């Protein structure tokens, strides 16, 4: 790929043109079907075909994308701040759900069918695991399950086959 400068890597090759145009021109200049560019702290693989480019290229770069270890860059990145705020809201929501289940269980509301939160709280209370099951772990399990369900919903909407296969046995 093209030559690099210390700290900024290959970013200087992108100045003055749209990033995807500059990368296309670099790929043509070096006759490279794939190039490795260093953009700040990130290594970026650039494909010169239209199909591969759509798969690899993002719609642009923020400072936090280019310098992920920089607290200053993250502070200026609104997408990172929005994502962190959303993550905090989701964590608080899951915490409230867990607490509501705990309160219902302690009040003797066990007549209803157990859901996953009830099962995890029961396992936490009986201490049958080899390691402690704390509220953070329960929240992580719930969040992971949410992501799996969301991914399946997206796959079905796009007409793709789900990756998980269910066995009959």
From TrEMBL:
Keyword Amino-acid biosynthesis: no
One Gene Ontology molecular-function label: oxidoreductase activity, acting on paired donors, with incorporation or reduction of molecular oxygen
The UniProt record lists the keyword Transmembrane: no
Keywords of this entry: Iron, Metal-binding
UniProt xrefs under InterPro entries: Cyt_P450_sf (IPR036396)
Membrane-spanning intervals of the chain: none
Family in the record: Belongs to the cytochrome P450 family.
UniProt name for this protein: Uncharacterized protein
Species this chain originates from: Aegilops tauschii subsp. strangulata
Phylogenetic lineage: Eukaryota, Viridiplantae, Streptophyta, Embryophyta, Tracheophyta
């Amino acid at each position: 790929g093209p030559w690099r400068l210390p700290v900024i890597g290959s970013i200087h090759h992108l100045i003055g043109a749209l990033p995807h145009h500059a990368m296309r021109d670099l790929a043509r200049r070096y006759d490279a079907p794939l190039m490795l560019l260093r953009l700040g702290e990130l290594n970026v693989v650039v494909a010169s075909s239209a199909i591969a480019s759509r798969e690899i290229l993002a719609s642009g770069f923020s400072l936090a994308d280019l310098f992920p270890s920089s607290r200053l860059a993250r502070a200026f990145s609104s997408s990172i701040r929005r994502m962190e705020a959303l993550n905090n809201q989701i964590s608080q929501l899951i915490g409230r759900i867990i607490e509501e289940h705990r309160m219902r269980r302690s009040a003797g509301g066990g007549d209803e069918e157990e859901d996953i939160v009830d099962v995890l709280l029961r396992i936490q209370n009986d201490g049958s695991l080899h390691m402690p099951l704390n509220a953070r772990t329960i929240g992580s399990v719930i969040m992971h399950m949410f992501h799996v369900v969301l991914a399946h919903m997206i796959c079905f909407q796009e007409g793709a086959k789900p990756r998980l296969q269910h066995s009959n046995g």
